[in-house]
Amino acid sequence: MEERGWNPDMALGIPLFDEAHQALAEQIDVLMDASDADFLQGLQQLIECLEEDFRHEEELMETINYPAIRQHREQHARVLASLHQLDETDIAAGKEAVKLVLPWFHAHLATADTALARALQAGAV
């Protein structure tokens, strides 16, 4: 069974992260079920939200001189590059790409974002 949406186990204990991540997970879930007519607009909104969330995380990493900033940024960049390269006329390919974003997002939360949250909670800011 595929994992969709948000669940409490995904929380990192940093309210701003958790709120943003919950909204992104829910947005991805809604987009996966969107009609073709609504998909492109929803995809653009998802990309904009991801860019904003990633930018916020990266600013925090810079502030604390986070040692894994390069690797974390690369993960963000790869996802955004993949989404920006989608052909807007190919809705099926776009929907397939969005199906891949959610498992990536779950894994990213469990690894890279968890490590960042621990660094922030340790008083690095």
From TrEMBL:
Every Hemerythrin-like domain range: 13-117
One protein family per Pfam: Hemerythrin
Record keywords, A-Z: Iron, Metal-binding
Domain of life: Bacteria
InterPro entries xrefs: Hemerythrin, Hemerythrin-like, Hemerythrin-like_sf, Hemerythrin_metal-bd
Family: Belongs to the hemerythrin family.
The protein, known as: Hemerythrin-like domain-containing protein
